[in-house]
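To whoever is on call:

I kicked off a structure prediction for a single chain this morning and the downstream step that reads the tokens threw a length-mismatch warning. I double-checked the sequence; it's 117 residues and nothing unusual in it as far as I can see. Pasting both halves so you can look.
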Amino acid sequence: MDPTKWDVPFPFIFAAMFMIVFCRAGATYWLGRLAAAGAHRTRLARVMESPRYLKAIRMVNDYGAPIVAMSFVTIGFQTLANLAAGGTQMPLPRYLPALVVGGLTWAAIYSTIGFIG
């Protein structure tokens, strides 16, 4: 579904894309927080023990919110960075600005040229 083909004004497309990424990334953050609270006994434990997830945790611990914001312009690292932010229990006052900046960037890309590739 290419949003550049939607028959609505651009601000609505942009807002829809932002809400999609805000909800998806926010849910991933909360999933990470829940997992850190004891879900290591579930299937999610495999993801949380993977080398890529452990690398994401190291990067989030080293660089914090900027890594989360920058993850929105990557392919494949965004989910792990948000999961790691939740898994390390990054405080909401630090996470939410990163989510908003990253989400606005992601929405700008995907509502304009993102679906070309």
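Update from on-call: the warning came from a stale cache, not from the record. Cleared it. Sanity check on the structure: The chain has six helices and no strands.
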